[in-house]
């Protein structure tokens, strides 16, 4: 069902982050980081995200792993994914022969990743990898780290989505952002069934239910592409609200 390029050498980002210690000072810790990029946002967004990752590598990272998941995308996006994997030695490609969705793409690529932390970017959302170091700085000691914008300008699409997401995790400040960081040991937080756009939010809520440490970090987001607020987009997210509500109801009935 899927194929992949050969494993790449030294397969992870190695990021040095500074964080407080118990004595009031700061220590520096190297974080092994795998970045997973499903192709759900199309070829243009994929190209931009890989460029952002490579820029981070030049600024703060020494070695890295970046896994592109081609989720049975269109011909042009598949061609771009092939080119990126062939051009950059630390970029691997995982390919599905039929579309399985963002949630399954993240779950399966996570199983092939080797980093200590897993960075997940939903390319259909407004976030970019330029904000990733801010999440990494908060990573030590946390199972899940979500970013949030202080004063985001929400499109109609985001407003509708946020309504559904906050039924699952009411305290999440910016559900539509689409950028998350997970400790690699917590792969089972990603259920393989459920609405794709709710993947990060559902994982955050699941971690809370298990008593795992989670946090949210304020970021200075630079939106790469403005999300669409066209009638068709609003209709699509309206369908997501309905699907998400039904999914949430089923979860509640299973776990009263």
UniProtKB/TrEMBL annotation:
Gene Ontology terms for molecular function: undecaprenyl-phosphate 4-deoxy-4-formamido-L-arabinose transferase activity
GO biological process assignments: lipopolysaccharide biosynthetic process
Entry keyword set: Cell membrane, Glycosyltransferase, Lipopolysaccharide biosynthesis, Membrane, Transferase, Transmembrane, Transmembrane helix
Disulfide bond listed as a keyword: no
Domain Glycosyltransferase 2-like: 34-122
The keyword Transferase is annotated on this UniProt entry: yes
Pfam families to which the protein is assigned, alphabetical: Glycos_transf_2
Cellular-component GO terms for this entry: plasma membrane
Database matches in PANTHER family: UNDECAPRENYL-PHOSPHATE 4-DEOXY-4-FORMAMIDO-L-ARABINOSE TRANSFERASE, UNDECAPRENYL-PHOSPHATE 4-DEOXY-4-FORMAMIDO-L-ARABINOSE TRANSFERASE-RELATED
Name under which the protein is recorded: Glycosyltransferase 2-like domain-containing protein
């Amino acid at each position: 069902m899927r194929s992949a390029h050969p494993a790449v050498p030294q397969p992870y980002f190695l990021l040095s982050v500074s964080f407080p210690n118990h004595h009031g000072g700061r220590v520096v810790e190297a974080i092994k980081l795998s970045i997973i990029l499903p192709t759900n946002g199309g070829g243009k967004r994929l190209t931009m995200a890989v460029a952002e990752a490579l820029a981070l590598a030049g600024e703060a990272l020494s070695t890295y792993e970046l896994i592109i998941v081609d989720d049975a995308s269109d011909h042009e996006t598949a061609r771009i994914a092939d080119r990126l994997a062939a051009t950059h030695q630390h970029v691997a490609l995982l390919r599905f022969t039929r579309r399985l969705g963002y949630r399954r793409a993240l779950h399966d690529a996570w199983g092939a990743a080797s980093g200590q932390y897993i960075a997940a970017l939903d390319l259909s959302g407004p976030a970019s990898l330029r904000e990733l170091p801010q999440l990494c700085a908060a990573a030590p000691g946390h199972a899940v780290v979500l970013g949030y914008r202080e004063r985001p300008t929400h499109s109609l699409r985001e407003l509708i989505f946020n309504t559904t997401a906050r039924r699952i995790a009411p305290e999440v400040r910016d559900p539509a952002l689409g950028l998350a960081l997970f400790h690699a040991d917590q792969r089972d937080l990603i259920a393989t069934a459920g609405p794709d756009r709710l993947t990060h939010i559902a994982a955050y809520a699941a971690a809370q239910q298990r008593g795992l440490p989670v946090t949210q970090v304020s970021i200075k987001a630079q939106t790469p592409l403005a999300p669409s607020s066209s009638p068709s987009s609003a209709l699509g997210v309206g369908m997501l609200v309905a699907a998400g509500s039904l999914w949430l109801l089923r979860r509640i009935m299973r776990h009263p």
